[in-house]
Amino acid sequence: MKDVYLVHITLPDFFTKPYYALVPAQRDVINALLKKRVIRGYSQDMDRKNIWCFIEAISEQEVMDILSTFPIISHVKVNITELAFFDTTPAILPDLIMN
Which listed residue, 14, 28, 69, 73, has the most CB atoms within 10 A of its CB? Predict the structure, then answer.
């Protein structure tokens, strides 16, 4: 059974040109993992110092394997916490109107 892990990513104090060059590829990886529902949520603070993501995985090692695909991984610090539970509001779809 898969668990949900909270990953706190601390971004560099100073963003270099090489780091900025990785951002589009990072977004592509995140969007692909969101689409597959591997990442359940992804947020960044307004100061651009922290990222929090919720990753669904079997183990912490699997989380590390997923994080290793992040283009920015060599520029950041990571802290992983296994969660006891992860509740979210259900996705609400509009009523289907049959014409």
Answer: 73
Provide the whole-model pTM.
0.86
Which residue ranges in the chain fall short of pLDDT 70?
99
- Residue 54, H or E segment: strand 50-57
| Exposure of 66 in the CB half-sphere (CA atoms within 13 A) | 26
Give me the numbers of helices (H) and strands (E) for the chain, helices first please. Answer: 2, 4
Q: What is the dihedral of CA 79, 80, 85, 91, to 10 degrees?
A: 80
Which CATH number fits the domain that encloses residue 38? 3.30.70.1060
Query: Where would I find the H helices in 36-92?
Result: 60-67
Domain residue limits at 47? 3-82
